[in-house]
Specification:
single chain, alpha/beta, 9-stranded mixed β-sheet, about 35% helix
Length: about 325
């Protein structure tokens, strides 16, 4: 029988697919699906999650703030003792921040990819997205909600990242997750040395240093893999602790994964488990345990689309360092 790690675990739930933005890097931009993971579903799931060592819960989508039950779901999870977060494009955040704080939201993760409204709104294909996201972050911060910004960086915007970093630091953002753009076609940079120069400026700024690995790689080997093969930096050690500590549920089709990147792989279905057995929720199925063991052991050598924060998280655990709250 597999022994669960003593570290607090993370549970991600994709509660819907519909979204009010049209991001070019997203497979379900403008989706109008009708599926919704419900508060009733969550109430059934939470006790099982607690039994499995989950202490951090994140709602993802689509756009979670479009879900009519998002406030009751935040409250359900928070009242059960979970630390609750959600990832959003921020457009609905200004009008919902007060209610989210009252419901018990611990962390809000807002996606921002450009240094100002002109570029960000273009990347997101949504008018006023930047301004509303910034307004929402300011309000959330004033309400005591921890604030993180996620930025997807690639050839289209890497030169904007130092200006965005300065802006977010002045805004008082607590964490910045800077991860590489991942598309079916490998992004190509015209000048690798320019990427390194810009990157080193970013990672030398201690006011708001990105929480993950450098998006283009920490070592010469990682940088070669990234620029030549399109492989993002991954776990440095021979074991992926993120695979042990994370469960990602795509509630639409009932799939469970041991990493938030796996659902987006072309072979994602072969790397998943079911989280309902005979109609009963179970986060400890033999298949899910098998996936945990497989990717913990083989992910560091085989994964090609690791998230920068995940790679750093696993390295911190491997080094025996204390893992801070919301490290993933």
């Amino acid at each position: 029988m597999t022994t669960l790690p003593e570290r607090p675990r993370y549970l991600f739930i994709r509660i819907l697919e519909a979204c009010n933005a049209g991001c070019f890097m997203c497979d379900f931009a403008h989706s109008r699906d009708t599926y919704r993971f419900t508060n009733e579903d969550l109430s059934e799931l939470v006790p099982k999650a607690l039994e499995e060592g989950v202490r951090y819960l994140r709602f993802t989508g689509g756009e979670p703030l479009m879900h009519r039950e998002i406030l009751p779901m935040v409250r359900t999870a928070a009242e059960a003792g979970l630390q609750v977060s959600l990832i959003t494009n921020g457009m609905l955040l200004p009008r919902m921040a007060d209610a989210l704080a009252e419901a018990g939201l611990s962390l809000v993760v807002v996606s921002i990819d450009g240094m100002d409204a002109k570029s960000h709104d273009l990347f997101r294909d949504a008018r006023n997205c930047f301004d509303r996201a910034v307004e929402g972050l300011k309000l959330a911060k004033s309400l005591g909600i921890m604030c993180r910004v996620n930025s997807v960086v690639g050839p289209h915007n890497y030169r904007e990242m130092p200006a965005l970093q300065e802006f977010l630091a002045d805004l008082g953002v607590d964490q910045w997750d800077l991860s590489a753009l991942k598309l079916s076609q490998m992004p190509t940079y015209p000048d690798e040395d320019d990427v390194r120069r810009v990157g080193e400026r970013i990672y030398a700024d201690e006011r708001l240093r990105p929480m993950g690995k450098r998006w283009y790689g920490e070592t010469a080997e990682e940088q070669h893999r990234y620029f030549v093969q399109g492989v993002t930096p991954r776990v440095s050690q021979d074991r992926c602790f993120a695979a042990e500590d994370v469960v990602y549920l795509d509630a639409k089709d009932g799939s469970a994964f041991v990493c938030a990147c796996l659902p987006h792989r072309t072979d994602g279905g072969s790397n998943s488990a079911r989280f309902r057995t005979g109609g009963v929720v179970d986060l400890g199925t033999p298949r899910l345990r098998e996936m945990q063991q497989h990717f913990a052991a083989h992910g560091p050598a085989s994964c090609t689309g690791c998230n920068a924060a995940s790679a750093r998280y696993s390295d911190v655990v491997a080094a025996g360092s204390d893992v801070p709250a919301w490290a993933y």
